[in-house]
């Protein structure tokens, strides 16, 4: 299984994807629940957004949140991805940038995820990459849907890393793993959904 983790306020939003690109679940946890999840589900690869632990206002004042990436590495024995270790696939953690992937699949201006139009834009374009998401997994609360979709992209980044379908992006914050975008024609999407 491949996990993508996004942070919103005090919640960790986790998307789990299998090797067929099906999103199996989307969870919301507080920190203790998130650590329980890692201990019990033990995903092969974890992708977190590049500002993981910083995007939350809480993280700026709470050292435990800002150090969570490091805690996952130390407590759960995940190894960060670096240039020298792309071939090693098990128990890996890395940072990704969801905005870079959204730019690849949405070929026009990306509307804010907080708007209805922005959410519709993301939901419409998501299947074009072969991601299979049952919309019933998404929250009924509009405030979380954008971050849930980001978590789905992060789980796809973890899947892409594991299956050697990724690109790297270097920045002042380190190396980001970005899924390669390959357009999946509508006919193939419909066939895979019917099976």
Largest sheet: 6 strands, mixed
Strand order of the largest sheet: 3-2-1-4-6-5
Compute the number of helices.
8
Average of the residue pLDDT scores: 88
Structural summary, described in words:
The protein has 195 residues and is α/β, with parallel strands linked by helices. 39% of the residues lie in helices and 23% in strands. It has 8 helices and 8 strands. The protein has a 6-stranded mixed β-sheet. Strand 1 and strand 2 form a beta hairpin. The protein is globular and about 40 Å long. The model has no long low-confidence stretch (mean pLDDT 88).
Summarize this entry quickly.
The chain has helices at residues 31-41, 57-61, 63-66, 68-76, 98-105, 116-125, 142-162, 186-194, and strands at residues 2-8, 11-17, 23-29, 45-49, 79-80, 92-96, 166-171, 174-179.
